[in-house]
Amino acid sequence: MRFFTTFLVALRALRRNTMRSILTALGIIIGIGAVITTVSMGNGAKARVEAQVASLGQNIITVYPGSFSSGGMRGGFGSSTTLTAEDADAIMAEVADIEGVSPEVRDRNQVLANGLNWNTSINGESPDYPQIKNWRIVSGSMFTEQDVKSLAKVAIIGKTVADQLFPNEDPIGQTLRIRNLPFRILGVLDVKGYSLFGSDQDDVVIIPYTSHMRRVSRRTNISSILIEASSSEKLDVVKQRVEDLLAQRRKGREPDFTVRTQEELAQAATETSKTMTLLLGGIAFVSLVVGGIGVMNIMLVSVTERTREIGIRLAIGAHGKDVLLQFLIEAILLSLLGGVLGILCGIGASELASYYFGLPTLVSTTSVIIAVAVSTVIGIFFGFYPARKAAQLDPIDALRYE
Amino acid sequence: MAPVVQIQDIHKIYDSGEVPVHAVRGVSLDIHKGEFVALMGASGSGKSTLMNLLGALDRPTRGIYKLDGIDVSQLDKNELADIRNQKLGFVFQGFNLLARTTALENVELPMLYGRHRKVSSAEIRERAHYCLEIVGLAKRADHMPNQLSGGQQQRVAIARALVNQPQVLLADEPTGNLDSKTSVEVMGVFQKLNEQGITIVMVTHELDIAHYCKRNLILRDGVVVRDELVKDRLIAEHELGKLKQAEAAAKLTAAPAA
To answer: Which residues of A touch B (CB under 8 A)?
Structure first.
């Protein structure tokens, strides 16, 4: 009953100064709004990164060559030339729980077709490649194991290459030349878009890795080995088995390879967006604290401005506790009001951002709950000092105050 | 019957400054139910201090103050607040109404702090309305203070002071901010209340205002130097009648000249 009447009194006091109440709450509105917006943008970015990672294919393990070193001079990561197609064959033959293996040979080269030319990535892969990468062939078909064995001059191409070299034609069955060798186009890959790191994944020509090694790049080593494990639970086991097998094949020598899973890659990417969210969230939090100090400021001014009112209340029988509670409730109500409006603003801003800038946003319930909790705490924290100041006033002095 | 206000050799010394100020130096006083007392004195005579002590806003340094049989001089801050809420009603010189708050809500205020009664908001409203009726402002219940004249504001303040049915109504220069005619009107309200048995103590420095009361106390240098009953007491109703006649006369004489 007593709390209820005090609540009523506080509500009346806020209503009497509508404009000031709104302005006070503005700091909180902006603070909470900023927090909600940044967190939802961060969440959206994270979700997009996750989707991109998933689009790379799932349960993928990649073997990279180690670093080359000769006579004390050390090359960088992947500079060693010791990874071979035989390593890939051995993995396929000996490691259990594997869906597919593709030895990769990568190169950039000029390609000619149709009187046009284009500089693009020439990747040597195995027929397992589209399945491993979860990448559909929209027209035509993939080359076969037979093509790999016979070093066939066949290719499948990405959408960008198709658009550049065959703007108005169906590329299937056409020929493109790499290093003056004619390759027959068997298929066109589905659009995959940009990678996590910003490169155009559709700007690619894929040929059998054997053809790449013998006919195009004329080398004996491969760039990496792509392995798909049968399930995500098996990922770590398979990784371990691959490491063991490769170490065994290099008996006595330093291990000159690195085995990485897709998840590690994804983690690095997620880490980046997490850092961004943290940074933006930090800035938003600072503005929230500033908003809280704004509430304290106004409440302090309000205590001075309303000294007479406090005097009247004390003179006609309010206890110090009643005044304390009233001012505290006012501060909490203001913060809470700001919190609720801030949440609405934040959701609105997130929607606007995703509508106008194409930024993905995801408003999470957790951030809404935290926002409400934080604004209440701000109300209590920053409202307590002014409220106590009001409660400690002497009624005689307060009534005499001009 | 025991007096409502019993003061025995009360002292108040302020020692916050460099020199202690002995504002009230041994006042003894009994006020009985139904009295209408004017407390007079020049500034610095200690009348405001005495008023604060009577109003339980302050505690005496020495002496005993019994209000309705309760020894107020020994109570703590919160108990004093309860005494003010239940036993006393305040009317101030500057009206002291809450701004941007309707007359009705202003009158309700003391009931929101009432300790021992559990009153529903409907009853609170009804009671506040009744008190506004007593002072003749029922029609202005929804007006804000800035929409009311000084006299009306003071009547709202009186209604607020009445709302918890106090033992004593304390008024600190209630006519200080009003013109002479409005002052008489407000004194009329006080006299009407006093006739209904309400005890009133008021501070004033205007002699003619003091003549509307039943008993005059004069303070000088913190002691009561005179305590007498008013002989030819002014009746607000008559005085108002006279004022109206005078005004009418002024208009009559003014009319042909215009």
So the answer is: 1, 5, 8-9, 12, 16-17, 308-309, 311-322, 395-396, 399
